[in-house]
Amino acid sequence: MSGTEPPPPQHRRLARPVTSQEPKNERRFAGIAVSGGVAIGPIFGTTEPEATITRHKIQAADIAAEGARLDAGIIQSRKQLGKLRARLGVLPEESQSEIAPLIDAYIRMLGPSRLVRGVRRRIEESLQSAESAVVSEADAIAAAIVAQAAPGLPAEDMAGLRRRADEIREIARRLVRNLTRAPFRSFAGLPDGAILVAESLRPADAALLDPSRLAGVATEEGGADGHTAVMLRALGIPAVLGAAGLAHAIRPGDIAVVDGISGTVTLNPAPPTVAAARRAVTAFARERQRYARLRRLPAETEDGEAVELQANLELPIELPLIAQSGAVGIGLLRTEFLFMNRETVPDEDTQTESYRTIVEAMNGDPVSIRVLDWGGEKEIEALTNAGLVPEIADANPALGVRGIRLLLRKPELLETQLAAILRAGAFGPVRVILPMVTNVAEVRASRDILERVARRLRRRGERIADKLPPLGIMIETPGAALSADALALEADFFAIGTNDLTAYTLAVDRADADVAALYDPIHPAVLRLIQFATEAALRMRMPVSVCGEMAANPRLTPLMLGLGLRSFSMSASAIPRVKQAVRMVEIDACARFARRVMEQSDPARIAQLVAEFGQPATAVRGD
Ligand code: PEP
Ligand code: MG
Asked: Which atom of ligand 1 is nearest to the CA of 376?
């Protein structure tokens, strides 16, 4: 958004006249592979002019007029997005369900959002023009989001933060374009089967592309985690982003091969490159047809046994991914995110709002909320500031006051969190999970607190569900696993946390690279504990699931099914491949396999058996 008059929209297609004598050498550009598949076709280049904004101050007398101009810009932007959303109806169902949540997120940001509130404040208090206020506020919010990227945050979470910041900037760009009446990019004249090449492509532009007419996309800017990449993946358009120098190298009449698997773009491919690309196009089309069916297919074994596949959630920004994954609810909501990167402990209203957003987003599917699991490697500054945890860590934090132990020592923490969960439960089904439980007394004490908090909320006139949410426990210590039969009498469900269970059983620190080779979830000791806890739950007809990383490993799916497990919760991205593993096996075969595995005492032999049982074939059942 710079300071000159916007030039009219133009297409780079005619950047330089071409003669038939001009030699065309093959040139290859490396970029980021963001959407699988290979495409070959003529290039269509396009650019979008920058919007111009003025940074002038307005007069106090003009505040109301500037507010009205902002309102008009918002209404126009919402209308455009509404139209875009309606257009999604022509896309394949698969793509619709992935793109619609993103468009909805944009529309929500134009409602009573932090962005719009901040923009109004800037107009009223700092006398900024509407467009200037939009840019400043969006930059401030995006910077605050990116600042949450604490060291050690998993790559997926970092990507989520970047995506959220991009969302804010993207909606600001649209608003500014409407406020300044700058023209939008036009795809008129895009020939069928073309490769779209641009310096950059906005997510909303990507959503306008017609996958049945466009062969591929290549841009100079953009990364693998951004919304544009998400959109292109959702549309199934082969794409390479971040191919430096590409947009400036294209000439009219150029042909290109976009390889969205290796992340390369080849301009003017030589005959052998064209032949190889054609073969790849055919092979990929066949494979895609098979996978496209998978998400809509039920999670059930070959012989019709239903399996529940849910998502783990660590940050609310993962919600759109969960919606896309086909997960049926959230099996583990780690609430630590709410307490991290802030100086004070979040109060009941703040927590209620966060849980409610998540519960509502799940549209009636259950959300299992785990109360705060502080301790071990999970440091939380707000708790230290509030004097709720010691400033100096215990000598042996993994065996100290962590999880439910802290919550029962500082019941005000648990009470606030349970109150928020109960209140959010008025908007959809919730369940409560207690972390690091090792004995029945902890479950009884927690249930007493849950009941007391519910009574207090009802006295206060808060709307909560008539029936209290099920109270479950993590089975993540050998102590809990081995007393699962007793715990099953107190708890309403089990969530087996194989990460800590492996660590505590084998005395291996989860985060210590020096002993990483000893960290083995299919060590017979761990498997026996999982089996014992599972059987205790099944005898009581009590729900039991696995929510540690083991659940996300499709190689281990047959073994866990064979042990009697039918419910798994994992990161959203793992759901399709686990679903595929489920659909490729029969329960009887899994049970026989599990029996064989459980007869072994040598971890290496178990690993060999698992490898032999085989990773699910690439075919999708239903072919
Ligand atoms: C586990 O321990 O397996 C688990 C799911 O909990 P976390 O990874 O949050 O400790
Ligand atoms: Mg754990």
From this structure: 10
pLDDT-above-70 percentage for the chain: 88
Residue 1 within any structural domain of the chain: no
476, 508, 568, best to mutate for ligand 1 pocket (most atoms within 8 Å of CB): 476
Q: Can you give the pLDDT at residue 511?
A: 63
Q: Chain-wide mean pLDDT for the chain?
A: 86
Q: Is the dihedral of CA 379, 382, 387, 392 positive or negative?
A: positive
Span 327-356, pLDDT tens digits: 999 999 999 888 876 788 999 999 999 999
User: 248 an active-site residue?
Assistant: no
User: What spacing in Å lies between the alpha carbon of 526 and ligand 1's midpoint?
Assistant: 14
The count of structural domains within the chain is: 3
Of 370, 310, 305, 304, the residue nearest 336 (C-alpha): 370
Cα–Cα dist 135/155, whole Å:
28
Burial class, 604, CB count within 10 angstroms (exposed 0-12 / middle 13-18 / buried 19+): exposed
Q: What is the 3-state secondary structure (H, E, C) of 42-101?
A: EEEEECCCCCCCCCCECCHHHHHHHHHHHHHHHHHHHHHHHHHHHHHHHCCHHHHHHHHH
Reading the block at residue 152, the tokens are 């050690």
Helix/strand/coil for 414: helix
Q: Does the residue 428 lie in any domain? A: yes
Residue 503 domain boundaries: 291-613
Which atom of ligand 1 lies at the shortest distance from residue 500's CA? Answer: 2
Distance 549 CA to ligand 1 centre (A): 8
**Ligand 1: residues within 6 Å at CB?**
332, 334, 373, 476, 497-500, 547-548
Ligand 1 atom with the smallest distance to the CA of 495 is 5
CB atoms within 10 A of CB 561: 24
CATH number of the domain where residue 207 is located: 3.50.30.10
Residue located nearest, by CA, to atom 4 of ligand 1: 497
Centre of ligand 2 to C-alpha 558, Å, is 23
What is the structure's pLDDT at 221? 85
**Percent over 90 (pLDDT), the chain:** 55
Mark whether 264 and 310 lie in a shared domain: no
Q: How many angstroms separate the CA atoms of 443 and 483, rounded?
A: 13
* Phi and psi, residue 313, nearest 5°: -130, 130
In a shared domain, residues 347 and 485: yes
User: Who wins on pLDDT, 280 or 23?
Assistant: 280
- Alpha carbon distances (Å) from 497 to 264, 435, 437: 41, 9, 11
Same domain, 108 and 174: yes
Atom 1 of ligand 1, residue of closest alpha carbon: 497
Residue 319 Cα to ligand 2 midpoint, Å, equals 21
pTM of the complete model beyond 0.85: no
CA quadruple 519, 521, 523, 529: dihedral positive or negative? positive
590 in active site: no
Ligand nearest to the CA of 501: 1
**Strand-pair category, 38-46 with 255-259:** antiparallel
User: Does residue 266 sit in the same domain as residue 144?
Assistant: no
CA separation for the pair 102, 85 (Å, rounded) = 10
